[in-house]
Design a protein that fits this description.
Layout lengths: L5 E6 L2 H13 L3 E6 L1 H10 L4 E5 L7 H11 L5 E5 L4 H9 L4 E4 L4 H32 L11 H13 L6 E4 L6 H11 L7 E5 L5 H9 E2 L11 E2 L1 H4 L4 E5 L6 H13 L1 E2 L8 E2 L3 E6 L3 H6 L5 H7 L2 E4 L10 H16 L5 E2 L1 H9 L5 H15 L4 E2 L6 H4 L17 H15 L4 H8 L3 H18 L1
Parallel strand pairs: 1-2, 1-3, 3-4, 4-5, 6-13, 6-14, 7-10, 10-13, 15-16
Antiparallel strand pairs: 8-9, 11-12
Helix pairs in contact: 2-3, 6-7, 10-12, 13-15, 14-19, 17-18, 18-19
Length: 459
């Protein structure tokens, strides 16, 4: 071999360790040894190895525990298990758990070396494939889809996101539920130097405190009832990538302290452990709460807020970016059609009117759900207003505030008269009328809807 692959040998018998160390070094391997499963776990966590060779039956920490830890650390590391009490069932179990090979003691030196060389070839192929995929992703980075929107407030958010993406700075995304905070977080990750690494996420308000702590930081075997083996936390699993903490404002106070340590010291302590493990992730957090108000109420730590709020992105609600509605509708209907393998449906005029004037308290998520609801109920290619959820088509009746006097018309009355004249001149075509008026079609739809409501109240 032109290079020296590193092998970690784990066994509870010192004699076997000494024998294998001499054998493998003579065959051109770099060899590290660990006596017992506990020492093996420490070696796995402290450094990288090309191959791991481990005994199965060891006190406290078994070979299957070593296999699990190795695969969590690096899925490309082949693990070979040794045992003096092999059976077909145990071999199948080991292979199903991800072992590269299962060898029975006693074995010949030539047999073991041949298996190790095949493991080297296997790892080399896996590494090469991963590198090729990474190169393809790097070349494709220029074609990363930009989140949909053309309104100024939304574009300002995108520009800031694009500016900070190449850095490792912590980002806090604030905005109402459904505004697309995770979409922006993924966009930042895809544009970053960490795009080859994982993008993991968790909703901090969706899990009980104990389970959330275990998911975030991991735990060691025996740390609580049901902890039958070590578990890697998401901070460790996201190594080299980005970790999205959604609804961070819902995090319990006790875990806020541990998160602060991660941000300050770049390390995390698993539940039940005494030693910290290094954390190498870019943290992106999001919340729909006003964290400064939560600080005043004593629900959120101010020091954690300042650590999270290095770069602040404030996503506007959909009602404040109505210029984006037509773009979003078109894209969402196209996505729904792609999922079902059908031609995209379109909104009829009355349905489009209702969608354009609705306030969308649930933001883009509500829009997506409403369109899916309408598509499911529509047989043809045109979505009528009746197919939309009733809350969207139900118009509010507001008191008439304009047209108090025709002798002294207000600016609103003059504007309305001009808009109606242009609309009539364009034969009722609202898109062309908006172009003549020099306003966005969504603005025209809102004004026309308001005029209709005023007429209904007046009558």
């Amino acid at each position: 071999m032109s290079y020296k692959p590193s092998v970690l040998v784990v066994d509870d018998e010192s004699g076997i360790l000494d024998t294998l160390r001499i054998l493998l070094r003579n065959e051109g391997f770099e060899v590290a040894t660990a006596q017992g499963g506990k020492a093996g776990l420490e070696q796995i966590r402290s450094g990288a190895h090309d191959i791991i060779l481990s005994d199965v039956r060891m006190p406290q920490v078994s070979g299957l525990d070593i296999l699990t830890a190795a695969r969590e650390q690096d899925p490309m590391t082949p693990v070979i298990l040794m045992t003096a009490q092999a059976s077909l069932q145990s071999a199948i179990s080991a292979v199903n758990s991800g072992a590269f090979y299962y060898i029975q003691k006693p074995f010949s030196n030539d047999e073991l070396v041949a298996i190790l060389r095949r493991a080297c070839e296997y790892r080399a192929v896996k590494v090469e494939n991963t590198q090729l995929k990474q190169e393809i992703r790097r070349r494709d980075k220029t074609t990363i889809a930009r989140p949909i929107g053309k309104s100024k407030r939304f574009l300002d958010v995108l520009k800031l996101a694009e500016h900070v993406s190449p850095t490792d700075s912590t980002v806090l995304i604030q905005g109402e539920s459904g505004t697309g905070k995770e979409v922006i977080a993924r966009y930042i990750h895809n544009l970053s130097s960490r795009s080859d690494g994982p993008f993991l996420s968790i909703n901090c308000g969706a899990l009980p405190e104990n389970l959330l702590e275990s998911e975030l930081f991991g735990h060691v075997k025996g740390s609580f009832t049901g902890a039958v083996r070590d578990k890697q936390g998401l901070f460790a699993a996201a190594r080299g990538g980005s970790f999205f903490l959604d609804e961070v404002g819902e995090m319990p106070a006790s875990l806020q302290v541990k998160l602060l340590r991660v941000l300050q010291e770049r390390e995390a302590i698993p539940v039940g452990a005494t030693e910290a493990i290094p954390v190498d992730v870019r943290i992106i957090a999001a919340t729909n709460r006003e964290l400064e108000e939560e600080i005043r109420r004593g629900n959120f730590r101010s020091d954690l807020f300042y650590r999270l709020n290095v770069i602040a992105l404030n996503l506007p609600p959909l009602r404040e970016r109505r210029d984006d509605l037509l773009l979003l509708i078109e894209a969402l209907l196209q996505n729904l059609a792609s999922e079902t393998g059908t031609e995209p449906k379109a909104l009829a005029a009355e349905a489009l009117d209702a969608v354009m004037v609705y306030e969308w308290p649930g933001n883009v998520r509500e829009l997506e759900n409403a369109l899916e609801h309408a598509v499911v109920l529509t047989r043809g290619s045109l979505i009528e207003a009746a197919s939309l959820p009733e809350r969207i088509t139900k118009r509010r009746k507001e008191p008439l505030v304009a047209e108090r006097s025709y002798r002294n018309p207000t600016l609103e009355v003059i504007e309305r008269a001009y808009i109606m004249w242009v609309l009539q001149a364009e034969g009722g075509n609202k898109t062309r009328a908006a172009e003549v008026l020099g306003i966005d079609p969504s603005t025209l739809y809102r004004k026309l809807s308001r005029y209709e409501e005023q007429v209904e109240v007046k009558v």
